[in-house]
Amino acid sequence: xxxxxxxxxxxxxxxxxxxxxxxxxxxxxxxxxxxxxxxxxxxxxxxxxxxxxxxxxxxxxxxxxxxxxxxxxxxxxxxxxxxxxxxxxxxxxxxxxxxxxxxxxxxxxxxxxxxxxxxxxxxxxxxxxxxxxxxxxxxxxxxxxxxxxxxxxxxxxxxxxxxxxxxxxxxxxxxxxxxxxxxxxxx
Length: 187
Hints:
Pfam families: G6PD_C. One of its GO terms (molecular function) is glucose-6-phosphate dehydrogenase activity. By secondary structure, the protein is of the alpha+beta class. It has one domain (about 15-125, about 150-180): Dihydrodipicolinate Reductase, domain 2 (2-Layer Sandwich), CATH 3.30.360. The chain contains five helices and six strands, in the order ββββββααααα. The protein has a four-stranded antiparallel sheet with strand order 3-4-5-6, with no helix packed on it. A hairpin with a 7-residue loop joins β5 and β6 (about 85-90). The longest helix is centred in the C-terminal third of the chain and has 20 residues, at about 125-140. It starts with a strand and ends in a 6-residue tail after the last helix. About 5% of the residues are buried.
């Protein structure tokens, strides 16, 4: 969990999840928008329906293995009622579009040979990264913290879920059909 110390991002948590041998291999950014304070679409006529809380709107930016994005919004269901349903707008690069594209390291090596440093870290970025790592390392040196291990093929340790639940959030992870379609994720 990271917090940025300025007026624009005050109180906005940034959660980073990383690991090896997780359920899926990929890189994505989920931007979870704030909940609306009042759900004007609550269905008062349905006793068994819990329409008091809308799921958050989520913008997902896919970085690897395919580029793309999806935007999940709460939309009104067709008809006379005021029920809502999640609506997903989705775009992913197709295999045909990326067929002859260089892999990430191929592009970096070519940029290096051509003297293009735009995709490389600058010294001030590296120094700031080490400042953050040093803060974490010094905090670990002062406390006896157990490492939260997890089984391969899972979404990580329980501590990762507990961190968000403590703040009233959940991870916005759903198995990605891109992996399922290629047989890389169990049904």
